[in-house]
Amino acid sequence: MSKKAFIFDLDGVIVDTAKYHFLAWRKLANSMGFDFTHEQNEQLKGVSRVKSLEKILAWGNKSVSEDEFIKFMAQKNDDYLIYIEKMEAQEILPDVTKTLDYLSAANQHIALGSASKNARMILEKVNLLEKFDVLVDGNDVTKAKPDPEVFLIAAQQLHTNPENCIVFEDAVAGIQAANTAGMVSIGIGDKKTLHESDYVFKDFTEISEAFLKELINR
Predict the structure, then answer these.
(1) Closest listed residue to residue 128, CA positions, set 150, 96, 160, 106
(2) 9, 35, 95, 147: the active-site residue
(3) 11 given a catalytic annotation
(4) Active-site residue, 16 included
(5) Which domain holds residue 111?
(6) How many domains does the chain have?
(7) What order do you get walking across the sheet with 109-113 strand by strand?
(8) Residue 45 in this model has a pLDDT that exceeds 90
(9) Could you tell me the pLDDT band of residue 164, with boundaries at 50, 70 and 90?
(10) Mean pLDDT of 13-29
(11) Are 25 and 63 within one domain?
């Protein structure tokens, strides 16, 4: 078997932390006297904290000073951390552990490529940290997806070429980043939304060992 590098995004791929981001942002919006919907929240997926807050303020038609902006970002993060502090292994999305175990048994490289600055803590909470050879998160990158920086750093740290990397992503920006990097992109989620991916699956329950084997041997 050849050796490939499998790079996983975190939010919405390994665990569903999107709901906690939603609750924390919504709490902030409510404190300013307005609300936003689950549909609007979709626009915040894979988007940086700064850009997210800019969008939310625009939805609420609010303008704030720079100091208030920084204070709101910190407030949101504090609320989010309170939610993820309580996370445990049953929050891992279906068949993710099975996929990681298969790749590990097949002696493949496994990396995390996430914009989250709390990635290490989340992986520790759900007992998956030791399954990853390399962790590249929001503390290691300066450019947000769709810039491919996060995935290219992961490839570099694994001493492998981008064309030997396979990326699992649930956000359009992440798929675009993988494609720009020249990596195989696998969308996890909705086919219509993630149509730019090389392959799309609803979740990991649809990904067979035969398919993973094919990716390894290609």
Answers:
(1) 96
(2) 9
(3) yes
(4) no
(5) 5-16+89-217
(6) 2
(7) 134-136, 109-113, 5-8, 165-169, 184-188, 199-201
(8) no
(9) very high
(10) 94
(11) yes
